[in-house]
Amino acid sequence: MKKTIFNIILLVTTASLISCTQTPKVLLIVGGHDYDTTEFFQMFYSMEGIAFDSASHPGVMKILQSEEVDSYDMLLFYDFIPDMPLKDSAVFINLSKQGIPMLFLHHALATFQGWEGYQEMVGGKYVMPGFTTDTTLLSDYKHDIDLRIKVMDQVHPITKEIKEFVIHDEGYSNIRLQEGIHPLLGTSHPDCAPLTGWVNHYNQSTCLYLMFGHDKHAYANASFQQLLQNSIHWLTNL
Asked: With pLDDT > 90 as the criterion, what percentage of the chain qualifies?
């Protein structure tokens, strides 16, 4: 009996140690928009204890539809494909039904303009010209502004260690927000939407959006880097 109890304790301890030392594996998805490539990848590859691969459009869609996607703990979207074909909605629906966590950064808010389900998944949408006849719904942007970011949820694992900070970045305004999202971060800047980060749930997937990340000035921001690391660990539970 004592030997059985000892073996159970040993197994639980070993499993706990394996869990603590596991490295999250993230697929970075890019394409469709210019960005400071070197600084972008330096930001991610400098993060200790997290493994990254990257793939760009259009080739990444094959990965997202194959068993290869199962080798990743989460997907990080930094793409900008407004005219993505409607048939590709099936890819995202399938991923969400598998429950794979997804993190959407900055201009990924404007991807897939023709599918309403994308907003339901991301939790918001940047509305572009050519995809609506109502001009009052069009979103806007402002480059090179200093956004003072306030933490709206001080107990959430992503933001609880984050203090109010300023980031030199691009702001989006008049964006659409999905009902039921959980606010994490916000700002009072007149050229930016009041909400700059949130958590959403779509099918079985947890989805997170962060507005930050236009260029190398944002990539160098220590608070943004910490938010990314916190987000990855929280989404993957690793």
From this structure: 90
